[in-house]
UniProtKB/TrEMBL annotation:
Main EC class the enzyme belongs to: lyase
Name of this chain's protein: Gamma-glutamylcyclotransferase
Classification via SUPFAM superfamilies: Gamma-glutamyl cyclotransferase-like (SSF110857)
Family membership noted in the UniProt record: Belongs to the gamma-glutamylcyclotransferase family. ChaC subfamily.
Gene3D superfamilies the record matches: Gamma-glutamyl cyclotransferase-like (3.10.490.10)
Region named Disordered: 19-68
Function summary: Catalyzes the cleavage of glutathione into 5-oxo-L-proline and a Cys-Gly dipeptide. Acts specifically on glutathione, but not on other gamma-glutamyl peptides. Glutathione depletion is an important factor for apoptosis initiation and execution. Acts as a pro-apoptotic component of the unfolded protein response pathway by mediating the pro-apoptotic effects of the ATF4-ATF3-DDIT3/CHOP cascade.
CDD domains xrefs: GGCT_like
Amino acid sequence: MGGAQLELPSGARPGVCVRRSFRAHAGDQPRRPPGPIPVPGTMKQESAAPNTPPASQSPTPSAQFPRNDGDPQALWIFGYGSLVWRPDFAYSDSRVGFVRGYSRRFWQGDTFHRGSDKMPGRVVTLLEDHEGCTWGVAYQVQGEQVSKALKYLNVREAVLGGYDTKEVTFYPQDAPDQPLKALAYVATPQNPGYLGPAPEEAIATQILACRGFSGHNLEYLLRLADFMQLCGPQAQDEHLAAIVDAVGTMLPCFCPTEQALALV
Ligand SMILES: N[C@@H](CCC(=O)N[C@@H](CS)C(=O)NCC(=O)O)C(=O)O
């Protein structure tokens, strides 16, 4: 996967979808998990994730595919969780930006990618919130990329993850006055894996304790936090920041000192 830093378009628009500051402090900046953050738009054509079973034969998301002017075959897919750093489908273009009217919440349980049946992990979904704003990456798929991406995401998101599709309006960071219609995968409270709200300290504890076929739940949290750091000061997510802060507070308990391990 691409190894460069995420190069964000310069000229971030202050005042666009701004929330209170992201509470990461210099001393406890979320450490980048192993491996570089791939740069959306420069990743080579990806094959399906190694842990993804063969694609389902029925890639029929419930939403009508949102179309924008121009290429009738083109489709934009909005990622705001693991799709931000691991889309794993071929795409023609990508944009960093945000959707309004939604807040991101770690309220979806995950018993495959970042958890197990006994210890479900927590991954993100979108909560309808009139004041909300969620930053992520929109990927444009064209031609035969469309059916391949939808087949893959139908398995990864819907079959394995309990997500459904929803049309959203995406505002590119570098052109918020030229919004795009996009398809998003959202886990609603009606899906069996939905966990709903919990104190952010409890969510942090669950994330620290869980892992699944795609890796540790902590990696999922820190890669998302890394993306938000790279989006710049105008991109805020207080829920994510509070969970990262809680993890930072608890990590010393999970990472005994050398003395505690009698290594000195
Ligand atoms: N639909 C959201 C969330 C997607 C998400 O995190 N889905 C889980 C499925 S439960 C996933 O694909 N995980 C893969 C991973 O954790 O690497 C997005 O657009 O990013």
